[in-house]
Write the structure tokens for this entry.
Amino acid sequence: MTAQNLIDSLRGGLVASVQAYPGEPMRHPETMAQISRACELGGACAIRCQGLSDISAIKGRVEVPVIGLWKEGHDGVFITPTLRHARACAMAGADIVALDATDRPRPDGRTFEETVAELKKEEVLVMADCSSIEDVRRGFAAGCDLCSTTLSHPGAAIDQAAGQGPDLDLIRQAVAEFPGRPVVCEGSVHCPQDAADAVEAGAWCVVVGTAITHPTSITSWYVDAVNGS
């Protein structure tokens, strides 16, 4: 599959974000691989995952593209923060590598643009995780293949309330500025209607994580509803 064919294969589809973190019951690469395969059987067009072990295990289990990242730390740039992290994700089997597209300082001293330039020399497909329209502009200007609204929501997705929805305003603005370019919706997609709304707003594809692959959060939403919270 060519790079363009891979990107085209995501259009209009749902990407399942399959992630668990240290201390969580499902934190094991084989579990992540099994969940990823289940999502693929449900119709997911790609899997987004984090950590080298998970990328490798999932790549060996599914046939759809794998979007890989490596989270390290909790503050500042922690989504694939350096060129070393990005290269490792690609080596582990990621078809696309996702990284923070903000202009914040990075641990290795490189700028976002410098990191992307090195990856493109190595023919790595790059997804820019964006917090604003400025990040989207930066991402496409740097040569990223896709730009996502991943960071446009306060806090981590698993900490957000089920009632919040995706950042449709950012999607519409980015699509208007970059017609025909892959603008991905990610973050606070908690129900099928949220996903449909994102596609209606022009999103290339929609990434859904918590609402599909994080049973602790999903259970808490129902518990809150039952308790009248």
